[in-house]
């Protein structure tokens, strides 16, 4: 039962990352194969704790991408509104 | 993306900085249907959102009616807010009404749309194996992650949300078609 739950969790984080990747600065076509590779590299994990660690890592990457977008937005707005720079 | 950013910022300025919490979220296209597939914003949220907006606009209109003797300056300041609140829900409300109409999709149409979608999927290299009965893994050579992507694409194509369990059970084109046909709000 826990293995199916873990499976759904992995799928959920994969979907969230895919959604986030649509606005990736280098393009979705760059982002998607790399995400796929990163997930399939861990496809053979069977230990529950290791899978949990992988999910945590994915969550961390998600936060990083969000931070990247915030920064990009901040820079874009600043460029438009800030006349001094 | 750039376009919406600019529009949203201008609107925000026109509203005197009164941006709602939702609009302040960065890098989400509020006008794209895919946004509403993402948790935590489901369709119910948007309906509620519009409902509160309508209630609020009605309250504003009622207040405006009762306070006719208000000073001119105060009325002038309030005017743009009232106007903008009324104008947005009017368009949004009609969009919600469109959602309510039943689709009645034919099986051939659903199959055709799913096959077209798979044709555009770059991992499917051998288009000759693509048919109404092809299996994602066995015939098309997709792995489970690709299957997740295909299911996501199907969700977007038919503007529905497929729960985890059902999404996990879809492994072939005809399973997907069956699922779509069983959903009354797919279109």
Automatic annotation (TrEMBL), chain A:
GO biological process: negative regulation of oxidative phosphorylation; respiratory electron transport chain
InterPro entries per UniProt: Complex1_LYR_ETFRF1_LYRM5 (IPR045296), ETFRF1 (IPR052000)
Gene Ontology cellular component list: mitochondrion
Signal peptide range: none
Lineage: superkingdom: Eukaryota
Pfam families recorded: Complex1_LYR_2
Family: Belongs to the complex I LYR family.
UniProt protein name: LYR motif-containing protein 5
Lineage, uppermost ranks: Eukaryota, Fungi, Dikarya, Ascomycota, Pezizomycotina
From TrEMBL, chain B:
Main location: mitochondrion
Domain Carrier: 108-184
GO molecular function: acyl binding; acyl carrier activity
InterPro entries membership: ACP, ACP-like_sf, PP-bd_ACP, Ppantetheine_attach_site
Domain of life: Eukaryota
Gene3D superfamilies: ACP-like
Entries under PROSITE patterns matching the protein: CARRIER, PHOSPHOPANTETHEINE
Keyword terms, alphabetized: Electron transport, Fatty acid biosynthesis, Fatty acid metabolism, Lipid biosynthesis, Lipid metabolism, Mitochondrion, Phosphopantetheine, Phosphoprotein, Transit peptide, Transport
Pathway: Lipid metabolism; fatty acid biosynthesis
A GO cellular-component term linked to this record: mitochondrial [2Fe-2S] assembly complex
Annotated compartments: Mitochondrion
Family: Belongs to the acyl carrier protein (ACP) family.
Protein purpose: Carrier of the growing fatty acid chain in fatty acid biosynthesis.
PANTHER family, A to Z: ACYL CARRIER PROTEIN (PTHR20863), ACYL CARRIER PROTEIN, MITOCHONDRIAL (PTHR20863:SF28)
HAMAP family reported in the protein's UniProt record: Acyl_carrier
Identification of the protein by name: Acyl carrier protein
Organism: Acrodontium crateriforme
